[in-house]
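User: I'm writing a tutorial on reading structure tokens. Could you give me a worked example: one chain, its sequence, then its tokens, then a sentence or two explaining what the tokens reveal?
Assistant: Sure. Here is the example chain.
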Amino acid sequence: MKHSRILYGLLTALGIGFLTLLLAGMYLKASDAVSILASLFSSELVLWFVLGGGIVFITVGIVGIGRQHFKNHRNLFTALAVLLIPSLTFATMLFASVVVFVYAPMFPVRDEITQVGLISTNPFVLSLGVKAITSEGTRIDSVIILNSHGTMVAEYRIEDIVTVDEHGYPMTRSMPICTLSRGSSMTLTLRFNCTLPPGGYTVRLTSWHDNHGSSPFTIP
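And here are its predicted structure tokens:
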């Protein structure tokens, strides 16, 4: 009897653990974090397997524990538990998943600047170490420089190119400065066609649809 209680308790705890990992993976995926959990639960097959396994473990564990306490009504308890526990657990997970997506960052930062080096002041040349920190690849379209008042004073971008679509109409396509696969990093050397006076500045990575990193630096 004692060993069976321990077994059913472990099954219940295992089911709760499965569902907790599932919610954690969903949050990391929604926030675009680079992690094993975010990558694992990007597969719908794995997601449904973990969800189903968690519900089964919780149901078996609670039924096993409950049958030892309701000895005179074991069959009734088992029928009610098998009917109610999966549906209530699924409804709870559905509500929790909505909460996860509500509180996940709406526009997560996809890159971070790991290093800023001032190569030259005339002309103004910067060296940037950039690392992708999300579960998806990223594209950087331009780099802007802000002064201490938040006003843009310089911008670096690659000139747009004009191509022809399948119907023969001209089409302008913006060229990225760089693209990074998830978790990758690179060093950029950016030559701005300007000079800037000494002071404190902020370098910011930008693109059309994504949020990227920024970092302060100083020109002595």
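What the tokens reveal: The first strand starts at residue 111 and ends at 121. The chain has a mean pLDDT of 83.
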